[in-house]
Amino acid sequence: MKHTLSVLLRNKPGALSRVTGLFSGRGFNIESLCVAETLDPQVSCLTLVTRGNEQIIEQIMKQLHKLIDVIKVSDISEGEYVEREMVLIRMKAEAGTRAEVLRVIDIFRGKVVDVSPTSYTVEITGSESKVRAVIDILRPIGIKEIIRTGTVAMARAPKK
Amino acid sequence: MKQLTLRTGKPGVHNHFKEEPMSKIKGAKAIVQCLVEEGVDTIFGFPGGVILDLYDELMDSPIKNLLVRHEQGAVHAADGYARASGKVGVALLTSGPGATNGVTGIATAYMDSIPMVVLTGQVPRALIGNDAFQEVDIVGITRPCTKHNYLVSNPDDLVPVLREAFYLASSGRPGPVLVDMPKDVMASLVAYPEKTEIKMQTYQPTVEPHPGQVAKACKAMLKAKRPVLYVGGGVILSNSSKELTELAEKTQIPVTMTLMGLGAFPGTNPLSMGMLGMHGSYAANMMVAKSDLLIAVGARFDDRITGRLDTFAQEAEIIHIDIDPTSISKNVKVDIPLVADCKNALLAINAWLDSSAEFDKAAFAEKHKVWIEQVQEWNAKHPLSYQDEGEIIKPQYVIETINRLTGGDAIITTEVGQNQMWTAQFYKFNQPRQLLTSGGLGTMGYGLPAAIGAKIAFPDKTVIDIAGDGSIQMNIQELATAKQYGAAVKVAILNNGYLGMVRQWQELFYDKRYSGTPMEVTPDFVELAKAYGAVGLRARTKSEVEAVIKEALAINDKVVIMDFVIKREECVFPMIPAGRSTTEMLLA
Ligand SMILES: Cc1ncc(C[n+]2csc(CCOP(=O)(O)OP(=O)(O)O)c2C)c(N)n1
Ligand SMILES: [Mg+2]
Predict the structure, then answer these.
(1) Which among B4, B168, B329 has the least Cβ separation from residue A68?
(2) Does domain A81-155 have CATH number 2.40.50.140?
(3) Cβ(B86) – ligand 1 distance below 6 Å
């Protein structure tokens, strides 16, 4: 099962490598990882997507929590949450395909952020599955390169 | 990402750090002052360029600064000192090769949760990352084998970091903490804030047991017909042998211990079935396999204990008391977890039972009578034993004789291999902190330096390293350290001319193909002893064994090496082959 973990981490040299070292050292897998500062510059937030059965996820959470630099660990995929990923895609844009590229981008509400005589660079944001869908559709038209950010996610605000 | 750059500045660790003007002192001096404040009286170390300021300061301090002969020896000695005394051990190493030589020692302490602070010198901050002379990223190297580690990049963090290091090393589940200190930091002026209680936002071990869980555990004990106490090193680390013994005795629950747990419960108590696991006793493994309630206290269900996981203690409900939540349900699914310091948990359980109307000592003894009889029957059927072979020295006999002649009262360290397992089986440890052995990592070369550390902590105690002829050569140079500081340890070498334990596996599972295990050349240990200014004794026949041990025990002012020429191809039994069920023991 896929799980999305949100980890608050003291923003210290080496803190991130403690997290990644834990995953490689104990044979846990990381599907994606996204880190940046929070409102408090001394704290980073890390969104980590991993897979495993209940027992493995429980171990991962406990092991993360045991790291001295980790402040808080939550499995946000346990409740309702929103997730977003951004992808930059450089498309081959030749006379015959330009219109098609633009049409697809438009459907997915992406935008063109850079243009050259032979390529468009487009930006698309959405859930991980939407990002995958876009890539699948654009692939036959001619993708030169893609860069994905990995997922960031946030638990839904309480309704009341 | 800016957090990955090497920066000074003060990220918010030190909430105990008060920002007020204060006079500054030299870093190296502050370190020494801090160590004294933490109650450190002994350091084991080896100097080098970047750590000279600190060595200079140590010269005028009350701290004993002992020079080892290899950095691995320094860390094991600090470890032995810590295990024997319960205090935080301290090792001091220089940068680069000094630090890397210490890594095996650090990993050894980490696997066995030993409180230790390792101080390493580092090249000056301006050179870090430049492949400077004797620069190595020791914080990176030891990240997976320390409880936590630090590179002190801001001089004013030095003192708070050291305090935090001691706090982390000794609290919660203990472990080694490494502090890497650049040379220029030790040479600069640093703040020396007043010591206040350390509170860390991100580190708050759960030490008090949940009352609801305590009640659940106790109720399970009230119901159980075939309960077993499975005791690990956590009981020793938390100094809760007394509470454990009280529980076992008043409930009449039989006890088995892991290698790390030996001594937590008296080995001569009739309720003790000795060690369990790969080389555990028949009775211990059988009773765990057949129990209906397994009470694990400060043990972690290591693969050497459980054998094949899906057949381990199949009929048992499992209570697991441990301070480390990651240990719980890691290998074996636990029914009643109790996250707490073992001492608090045992105190709470004892108190619950004492105040419960349902608990009655006599009734419990009656309830467990059949079970105890069954356990004793197993024990009588297959006791730990060995074949006497006349004048050929059997290693088990050597250990039994050492046990008898020391009154079971010596501090024993071991190396790793058959020597370690025979010691665990045949020396009856009645006190905690009496057996110092590398359990988790199984580090050959641990025993001699650890014995030195223990002897420094307890100069009046008899300290014996029970060694193999292979392992002893891994840190033999520490004989000079022992001599220099009058640490009159004894070394009993069970000399079989083999890497015996590996040979045993080859005998049993590789068709007796002894690839790389015969030691065709070993030094003459008696002559070697002389070369190091120690006394060398040798026994070649069974009838010489007792005399040699007596002679060694009578010498109190010199290191003594006893070389026992033992039966070459003796095996350790019982044995559960790796990956098999615990009931599938090879008995001979
Ligand atoms: C540093 C290290 N290297 C290798 C091993 C693997 N090993 C385990 S026991 C053993 C044999 C030890 O030989 P010896 O010290 O003579 O003890 P014996 O088993 O003969 O009593 C070896 C090589 C180890 N435990 N530690
Ligand atoms: Mg040997």
Answers:
(1) B168
(2) no
(3) no
